[in-house]
Design brief:
This protein is α+β, with helices and mostly antiparallel strands. The protein contains seven helices and twelve strands. Helices cover 30% and strands 44% of the residues. The chain has a six-stranded mixed beta sheet. A six-stranded mixed beta sheet has the order 8-7-12-11-10-9, with helices on both faces.
Length: 270
């Protein structure tokens, strides 16, 4: 991983955050956050803390339970788009215990200028590394990658609820007879059932081509190849799908029979 495009200021600011943390200078640390900032330690079972008061309370509650705590930085990389990946070893001693726990993790910082907008702490270093690299991608490519993860989940007959916004809906506009809306994660599961249960045996489903992408949508051509239940001959179906994203989650997906209709929906055709 190269630091050719690293922003030295962000690395310095991140080092300063760890100096404050190791020194238990919570006032200095909390000053680095904004009123809407988030410290996400949910992967450790410690919750997600939003806002200055919640972050300060979390720090006090966590450190009050520790007799000793130190973070040793192993790696630090500024990846662009305000993203800093840190690999750390945490040394902690609780209460009267003489045992010092050593835990390796990957905090991912997202900076908005000189303010921490988000810290997400990953227990799995490689998961954190991958998440940081995705977050640092140009937004159009990032949405393409998110879309591919959704497609892979559908191909595996799994519902990627973690990638869907609460208000997510999927719509089919392929023919008047198939016009229908499905809502939420359960709606996506129902859509999967309607799609795959029309075929017997193996079904090949995937993206044939990415047509367009931006920081808010992805337009792709889908293909499905399989043998219908009441036929011995395989068929190949194609349609153009638009998926809209906000805050790294899919909010809506619409299937169109015609590419021009799909492009019109995102303002790319007259």
């Amino acid at each position: 991983m190269s630091d050719e495009n690293a922003t030295p200021d962000l690395l310095e600011l991140t080092r300063g955050a760890y100096e404050a943390l190791n020194g238990r200078d919570f006032d200095a640390l909390v000053e680095m956050f904004a009123p809407t900032s988030v410290w996400d330690v949910s992967r450790w079972g410690l919750g997600t803390h939003t806002g200055l008061k919640a972050i300060r309370n979390f720090l006090h509650d966590w450190f009050d339970s520790l007799q000793q705590y130190e973070v040793q930085v192993e790696e630090m990389h500024a990846l662009g788009r305000g993203v800093v990946l840190v690999v750390v070893n945490q040394l902690a001693q609780q209460g009267a215990s003489r045992r010092v726990l050593r835990v390796r993790s990957a905090p991912v910082f997202v900076w908005a200028e000189e303010t921490i907008a988000l810290i997400t702490v990953y227990p799995d270093v490689e998961e954190g590394r991958a998440a940081a690299m995705r977050a640092a991608l140009p937004s159009s490519q990032h949405n393409i990658d998110l879309h591919e993860r959704i497609v892979e989940a559908v191909r595996a007959r799994r519902v990627p609820a973690e990638l869907l916004a609460p208000q997510f809906r999927i719509e089919s506009r392929l023919t008047p007879a198939t016009d229908r809306q499905y809502h939420g994660a359960e709606g996506l599961r129902e859509w999967e059932d309607d799609l795959f249960e029309a075929f017997a045996g193996k079904v090949d489903f995937g993206v044939e081509k990415v047509i367009a992408a931006s920081d808010s949508f992805v337009v792709v051509r889908f293909t499905v190849v399989g043998r219908p239940l009441r036929s011995s001959d395989p068929v190949e179906l194609r349609w153009v799908g638009v998926t809209w994203f906000r805050d790294e989650k899919a909010t809506r997906a619409v299937g169109y029979r015609d590419q021009d209709d799909a492009l019109k929906a995102v303002g790319l055709a007259a």
